[in-house]
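Subgroup meeting minutes
Present: P.N., E.W., G.H.
Scribe: E.W.

1. P.N. recapped why we're keeping a running log of single-chain structure predictions: easier to compare across weeks, and new members can see raw inputs and outputs side by side.
2. G.H. added today's entry (128 aa).
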Amino acid sequence: QVQLVESGGGLVQAGDSLRVSCAASGWLFSAYGMAWFRQPPGKEREFVAAISWGGDNTYYADSVKGRFTISRDNNKKAVYLQMSSLRPEDTAVYYCAADGIRYASRPLPQTQNGYRYWGQGTQVTVSS
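Output recorded in log:
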């Protein structure tokens, strides 16, 4: 059974850094692209970043480009989101998601329906 478990969320101040992690189990993690989405309070879930199955290609939302870095460790079956220069508008529940296509060669999607498996989310709150 595929399982994605996020961790590392918390309460930080504006300008701080934080790293959230997603631990995967139950399937061939290294064969699938991974992504982070977030859902701010009262808003729709939105794309944050994605990384290809081999880690060669990364994609970012304009709102986080230059501040956030996505990475993965296929040996540990984990994907990370390093967030720096955090802003109050980064406050959200952060979700990791797994691509639905094995060894995909196409660019990773930036919409939710391209992803097959989802974690339960971790709350990140940035105070001003």
